[in-house]
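FIELD: query
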Amino acid sequence: MILAGRAIVVDRDDVDTDVLYPGRYLNLLDPAEMVNYLFEGLDPGLRAELGGDTILVAGANFGTGSSRENVPLAMRTAGIRCVLAGSYARIFHRNCVNLGLPAIASPEAAAAARPGSQIRLDTATGEIDVDGARFATRPLHPMMLELVERGGLVPWVAGRLASGR
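FIELD: result
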């Protein structure tokens, strides 16, 4: 799978899910409404930059803090195609996987990206291109690719149950 898009950069390490999506909005259930509060505690102006071609780029330990599924769900709904970071907090990464949002770790590629950079990721080979500079990371596991293609763990399981597999 090829993921390509324009970078929106959060040039910080240890970005907490509490600033990505503050707790006072956790009662919202509609992902389209959640998008209105994405980045609320970090930089609400980032929402104006989102689109269907967005690749969110961040530093190390991205998504630390509470295990808010709202964050990757709102990101995916807002048109973020994938997240490219130096590294991830374990639970945040797992939430991305479960919700079908690719979360790629590459400290070098993330450091090379600037706002508006053109990024291309080949999930099968692990090749990342940032404005013509090439980087390598581990390819996504085939199971992760299936989850992304199906829209996450719940649709994947529903499809398996429906097919009797």
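FIELD: remark
Residues 64 and 90 are 8 Å apart (CA to CA).
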